[in-house]
Amino acid sequence: MGQHDLDRSLGLYPTMMISMGAMIGSGIFVLPALGYKKAGPAVIVAYVLAAVVVLPAALSKAEMATAMPESGGTYLYIDRALGPLFGTIAGIGAWFSLVFKSSFALVGLGAYLLLFAPLSQGAVVYVALALAVLVVALNVSGTKMSGGIQAVIVTLVVAGLVAYVVNAGLVADGARYTPFRTDGTVGVVTAAAFVFVSYAGVTKIASVAEEVKDPAKNLPRAMLGSMAVMTVLYIGVVGAIIGLSDPAVLRTGGPGGTASLTPMADGAGALLGGAGVLFISVIAVVALTSMANAGVLSSSRFPLAMSRDDLLPPALRAIDPRFKTPRNAVLLTGIVLVLLIRFVPVIELAKLASAFQILVFSFENMALVAFRVADAPSYDPEFTAPGYPFVQVFGFLAGLALLTQMGAVPILGAVGIIVGSALVYLAYGRSRTDRTGAIGTILRARRGEEEDGVTQTKPE
User: Fold this and answer.
1) Which of 90, 162, 289, 398 is most buried per CB count within 10 Å?
2) Could you give the CA distance from residue 17 to residue 304 in angstroms, rounded to a whole number?
3) Using CA atoms, how far apart are residues 212 and 301, in angstroms rounded to an integer?
4) 3-state helix, strand, coil in the chain (%, to 5)
5) CA–CA separation, 352 and 424 (whole Å)
6) Count of Cβ atoms closer than 10 Å to residue 315 Cβ
7) 3-class DSSP state of 112
8) CB atoms within 10 A of CB 339
């Protein structure tokens, strides 16, 4: 094994748990109340709608992952399909989005931590910083260790969530589900745009494809299996939250009359009183830490892959000789994570990350179309996404439709990420690479056909 090789140490179960760990976080513990404020009980439908829009990208990425089982995920596929400029934008943007999500998770757990720990609001930031350092150290120490711990944590959290849903079914108030749609179809679509990020983790596992055993089988199974489980779990948990909680608390129980930041705890008191709140709050803190761990694990592989392609400095491709992890890429990700937690209002920036992730998911569908049309011999996936090209076109258009519901500020933030990433490419990567991607192959073939046509019709 060379100095730039990673260790294939993740089997199906830990791979699936990393994917689920990236989804069991804000999507369950924070976002349901925000979605409820926009759509009422129909937020349950919004979670289903978001899953439908994510599914084409999950299928597309599962196919591309089996054709290119290397680190990099989103960056790698868009770079190879659309060229290094789009690859740089996707890589840096997806990296920022995941780091924002991880910082949001660690800061967001503070609201639950305050429900049972004797801490001041100011001390919560330092707890988040300590957990960030722990997560980074864990990721430097080895993917197998990180993945193994992730599997144990996610298994326990899922068991706790299932118990929450089952018990809620016995005491939930059916009257709280009527009226079901408080803000019409527009409210459901808007809520779907905001909870869309809940499913973003499903495709992030592709970024650690190089560390997965038998990736041709395990990657598609982990992606699609984790998405199926999480869709059912989201529906159950959100339904339980609505049936257990006072609607006024969900809508205005947060700071300054905003939506509640602890929706699961709001309803937990109806199950077991104070013990229920304590139980759910502890699960939330553990789950949000797990989400941050999964975010660092997968996001750190973007700078690794980009460095291998000479789009970022060579130091980022170094693999720790002892732990076989991308040490420098993890440390860079960790430094940004700590700075965000300490100095930036990450809850606001999480909205910007969501908008960019919707955009990236849309273009992942188009990346698959580019690979199929180019028909390059090197593209030989072992899993084939069904429904091509209709599924991919639907995913692309549906993603853009959701993006329009995010509001002006998140859209402008996504544009800012695009511009900044493009500048990085122009300043550093452009002079170091001459790849064109599958789209270049298509354009060259079309140009050759046109030239042949001109030659054949040219008078003698």
Assistant:
1) 90
2) 22
3) 13
4) 80, 0, 20
5) 20
6) 12
7) helix
8) 13
The first and second tokens of residue 315, run together, are 């130091």
- What is the Cα–Cα distance from 70 to 211, expressed in whole angstroms? 8
Whether the predicted model's global pTM rises above the 0.85 cut: no
Question: Residue 294: phi, psi to the nearest 5?
Answer: -65, -35
- SS3 at position 250: helix
Q: Tens digits of per-residue pLDDT, 175-187?
A: 888 888 887 788 8
Concatenate the DSSP letters of all residues of 36-83 into one string. HHHHGGGHHHHHHHHHHHHHHHHHHHHHHHHH--STTTHHHHHHHHH-
Best CA proximity match to 114, nearest among 265, 253, 322:
265
Query: Treating both helix axes as pointing N-terminal to C-terminal, what angle do 301-308 and 74-82 enclose, rounded to 10 degrees?
Result: 30
How do residues 84-139 score in pLDDT, each as one tens digit? Answer: 999 999 889 888 888 888 887 888 777 788 888 777 777 878 888 888 888 888 77
Please tell me the total number of residues recorded for the chain in this structure. 460
Do 296 and 302 form a contact (C-beta atoms < 8 A)?
no
